[in-house]
Every structure is written in structure tokens, then in C-alpha cells.
Amino acid sequence: xTAEECIKTRRSIRKFTNQPVPHELLEQVVETASFAPxxxxxxxTRYIAVxxxxxxxxxxxxxxxxNTAIMxxxxxVIAVTLIKxxxxxxxxxxxxxxxxxxxxxxxxxxxxxxxCLAAHEKGLGTVIMGLFREKEAESLLNLPQDRxxxxxxxxxxxxxxxxxxxxxxxxxxLSYQS
Length: 178
What we know:
It contains 7 helices and 4 strands; from the N terminus they run ααβααβαβαβα. It is of the alpha+beta class and 178 residues long.
């Protein structure tokens, strides 16, 4: 599969088979995702694979019943976390850009998409979810104080093949200036 094929055929999957995701396969996905670029190569993104009873409890931390149903159906959920205070900062603790601490979410987003594309290439389906009660979920996951929960990704073997949603034209997305 080419990069273009992978990008154009990946879909947000919300229905999964009950086939478990082998840990070895998940480790391959994370190894590939580790090549996602990050601010000054800080590599702040960390993944927590959540299964079983903990996954069921995490599903109750969502703010939308649709996400609860997705998580209940998925064999596992990845909690995408980040190490706070490193990305977008200088060594003295000051911000490197006017984005302040927002750059860390940008890097977590890049890493999340790299994870999803790597999973797709391996035959897995994913959907990135952002509607959850952050503090409650972080407490359930026992995150240390230097970590933050950025997103949840449901992972499993797809039990659906959704069509691509309508895309904006290149003319709408791209402009040139000289």
C-alpha cells in the first residue's frame, strides 16, 4: 500500500469484530507511529493500551453515548498521552513560539494520525475520540502529574466499510500568495 492509498482509504471505524488485537501487532503499530515528527524531536507522545474491565470503566468517562458504544464494541482503546512542558518550550521553561503550550497537542495529533495510518496499513480500524471527561479518565488511568490525556483511539478489526465523506476541493483548500 502506498502512502497515498493509505491516506485515501483510511476511515474512522466505529464498529469492530470481536477478534482481539494481538499485542505483537499493536507493538508494530506503535513502533511505526514512533517515527511521527515532533517539536525538536521531543517525542512526547505515549500510548496506553486499555482492555477488559479498565476499558469498560474508561468508556463510562465519555461525554457522548456514541463514544461509549464505540469503546464498548472495540477490543481495545488507546489512551494517547503526552509529557507536559517539553514540546514547544526552551530549556529554561519559556515558550519557543506564540502557541504557548498548544504545540504539545499539535504533536500528539500528528502522532495519533501516524498511529491510525500505521494501524490501517496492518488491517486494523481506528477512530480518534475527544469527547471525554479528562480528569476522570486521567485518574482512572493513574497518569502521573507530568502527563496529560490528549485523545482516545478505539482500535480493532473493522466490521464496517464506510464510504469516504465528501471532501472539499483543492481550490477551497489551497491558495497562493506572491
